[in-house]
Write a structure and sequence with these properties.
- This is Pyridoxamine 5'-phosphate oxidase family protein.
- Keywords: Oxidoreductase.
- InterPro entries: F420H2_bilvrd_red/Heme_oxyg, Split_barrel_FMN-bd.
- It is built from 6 helices and 8 strands, in the order H-E-E-E-E-H-E-E-H-H-H-E-E-H.
- With about 150 residues, it is of the alpha+beta class.
- The protein has one domain: Pnp Oxidase, Chain A (Roll), CATH 2.30.110.10.
- Strands 1, 2, 3, 4, 5, 6, 7 and 8 form an 8-stranded antiparallel β-sheet that branches.
- A hairpin with a 6-residue loop joins strand 5 and strand 6.
- It is globular.
Length: about 150
């Protein structure tokens, strides 16, 4: 059974609202790759964008590697995920205020997003927007697999 998503389905899924896990190589040799949860933005066929602190470990590792990966998933059955990896194509420093506001409203309701933006307005001077062009994809959609084992006749 092929669990891979079509290009259209993977892009639609990735454009959905998911907390994703960002992964980047850690060449310091003391640990496995760095993996951290992040908010992100993506439009089908476009660049994948994350907002991160300019001076964080993840920012330093992404600058050194020149690339990163990101995995978004459904956390309830039937499980699905999309993983994208590719090169960094731009860094906006500081993060554009419009992108930051869009991202907050993507993940939070109106009232909470407004409060979050007001309480964290100083992040506009501390954060950058890192844009990556997905080159390698990994996907799985377990919907069809789950249907075979749902116990219904």
């Amino acid at each position: 059974m092929d669990l891979a998503m079509s290009v259209r389905d993977r892009e639609k899924f990735l454009a959905g609202t998911h907390v994703a896990v960002l992964g980047v190589t850690d060449p310091r040799g003391r640990s496995a790759p760095l993996l951290v949860p992040v908010w992100y933005g993506y439009e089908p066929g476009g660049l994948l964008t994350v907002e991160i602190g300019r001076d964080t470990v993840k920012a330093r590792l992404i600058r050194a590697a020149g690339r990163f990966s990101l995995c978004a998933q459904d956390e309830s059955a039937p499980y699905r995920y999309v993983s994208a990896e590719g090169p960094v194509v731009s860094v906006e420093d500081p993060v554009p205020a419009e992108f930051r506001a869009w991202l907050a409203h993507r993940y939070l309701d109106e009232e909470t997003a407004s409060a979050y933006l007001a309480a964290n307005r100083n992040q506009l001077t501390d954060d950058v927007a890192v844009r990556m062009r997905p080159r390698r994809w990994r996907t799985a959609d377990f919907s069809a697999f789950a249907e075979e084992f749902d116990g219904r006749d």
